[in-house]
Amino acid sequence: MSEHTIEAVGLRRTYRSRTGWLRPQRREVEAVRGVDLTVGNGELFGLLGPNGAGKTTTIKLLNTLLIPTAGEARICGFDVVRQTREVRRRIGYVFGGDRGLYDRLSARDNLRYFAELYGVPGREQKRRIAELLDLVRLTGRENDRVEGYSRGMRQRLHIARGLLHRPRVLFLDEPSIGVDPVAARELRQTVADLAATGTTVLLTTHYMAEADELCGRIAVIANGTIQALGTPAELRHHADGRQVLEVEAYGVGDGQLAVIHALPGVREASVVVTGAAQVLTVQSDAGVDVQADVLRALDGVRLGRVTARQPTLEDAYVATVNRVDAQSRRVEAVAA
Description:
Layout: E1 4-19, E2 25-40, E3 44-48, H1 55-62, E4 70-75, E5 78-79, H2 84-89, E6 91-95, H3 107-117, H4 122-135, H5 151-163, E7 169-173, H6 181-196, E8 200-205, H7 208-214, E9 217-222, E10 225-230, H8 232-236, E11 242-250, H9 254-261, E12 266-274, E13 277-285, H10 291-297, E14 302-309, H11 313-335
Parallel strand pairs: 3-8, 3-9, 6-7, 7-8
Antiparallel strand pairs: 1-2, 1-4, 4-5, 9-10, 11-13, 11-14, 12-13
Helix pairs in contact: 3-4, 4-5, 5-6
């Protein structure tokens, strides 16, 4: 048996579309541009990337929902194109959102229904459902209708559904999207417990803290290719030699952000809106004090907390994604 549960070599997926009526134009979009990936038996592996980077397309190529344009992939040694039936017997797929459950049924009845679909033998269903309800912490609420569940409870039930047939590989595609912080913590614990049972888990997420806490290794995908791969500690090295300045502000404009980005020593500058405020994050070369210049550039902007800190996994992720974006813009400028 291979030491790798998931293997992908040169995986590509191109979408072809046609626009216009009188003078139709055909265009191709490369969603995945040659992904090479291996995930070990029992590993909890994270796949991170911005919207449109190719995360979900990669997941769907690996779980047989899409056919690769080029390259090949194997799950538990079985080819995802030529041996689709064998692959599907060994995988589970859980996606973020509310679809995929029957609201008027209880959790137990939902699991009974899907157990029949997955071909779980009748004599095993009762015991298996009880095990999964305990794993996802729904024991005691199993007879309640799903329509009364919180989003976090629904997501945990999704995970139970995906595990009914004892898959060797579970794909979790942004399972905590839209879930409140308390429910997200419970969901992370469920995933950690699941990985401890020996199931291989491939997790996509936008939440860096979630990936940092759960994943043994992480791949960052951007522009359809893997841009960085390693443990969370190894990925932080992408931000080595930097320091981070965070400024809480109210009213930072694009012009001010451009001025800050052009300051000597500044490597990255970005703004995230959090409620009524903005958080400006500035990455700069270590040993270069940019705080005074940044605050001068923000003259006229109402400011709050100002904090200097060491880089995190999220800072390394932003550095990687921004580097790819800058390269893409240069290529487009040359082509134009």
